[in-house]
Design goal:
Layout: H1 2-44, E1 50-58, E2 62-69, E3 75-81, E4 88-91, H2 98-108, E5 111-122, E6 125-134, E7 139-145, E8 151-155
Antiparallel strand pairs: 1-2, 2-3, 3-4, 5-6, 6-7, 7-8
Length: about 160
C-alpha cells in the first residue's frame, strides 16, 4: 500500500511539472511568433541587419520593437506595427539609453524594483517605458522621451 501511495504522489508531481512547463511554453508561443515575424519583416525591408533584441510594446496599439544595427553599423530601433502598417526606424546614437532612462526614473521617483524598460513609438516619437514597483509595492509606468529624457507621461499607483 505504501508503495502505491509513493508511486501515485510521484506520478502526480511529475504530471504537475509537465503541465506547468507546457502551459509556459504554449503561453509564450504567440509572443515569440509575433517577434520573429517582425524581425523577418524589418530585415526583409533592410531597415536592420543584425538583431540584438525584440519585444512587444503595447499602448493604444500593439507593435514590436526590434533593436539592432543597420547596414552601416549604427544602433537602430525599428517599430513594426502588429497590424502590418508602416514601419518606422530611428537611429539611437543621439538618443538616451535604457540605462539612462532607468537612472532618471530612480533619481526622481521612489523606486523599489524596476520591472522592465522598453522602447516604443508614440505619437510624439520614441519613448522609453519604465515599469517599476515603488516602496508601497504599487505598480507604476513612466514614459520618457528617447530624444532628451523629458517626462512624457506617468501612470502611478496601480
Amino acid at each position: 500500500m505504501r508503495q502505491w501511495i509513493t508511486f501515485i504522489l510521484g506520478f502526480l508531481s511529475f504530471l504537475a511539472v509537465a503541465i506547468i512547463i507546457l502551459v509556459l511554453f504554449l503561453g509564450n508561443k504567440p509572443y515569440s511568433e509575433t517577434e520573429q515575424l517582425a524581425i523577418d519583416r524589418a530585415k526583409s525591408e533592410q531597415l536592420i541587419e543584425d538583431v540584438e533584441r525584440a519585444y512587444v510594446y503595447t499602448n493604444t496599439e500593439a507593435s514590436v520593437t526590434v533593436l539592432g544595427t543597420n547596414s552601416k553599423g549604427e544602433l537602430t530601433a525599428v517599430f513594426v506595427p502588429k497590424d502590418g502598417g508602416k514601419m518606422q526606424a530611428a537611429l539611437l546614437k543621439d538618443e538616451i539609453t535604457a540605462q539612462q532612462a532607468r537612472e532618471i526614473v530612480v533619481d526622481e521617483m521612489a523606486v523599489k524594483k524596476i520591472l522592465h524598460t522598453k522602447l516604443g513609438m508614440e505619437k510624439d516619437g520614441p519613448v522609453w517605458e519604465v515599469a517599476f514597483l515603488d516602496e508601497k509595492d504599487s505598480l507604476n509606468y513612466v514614459y520618457l522621451s528617447a530624444s532628451d529624457g523629458t517626462w512624457w507621461k506617468r501612470i502611478l499607483n496601480l
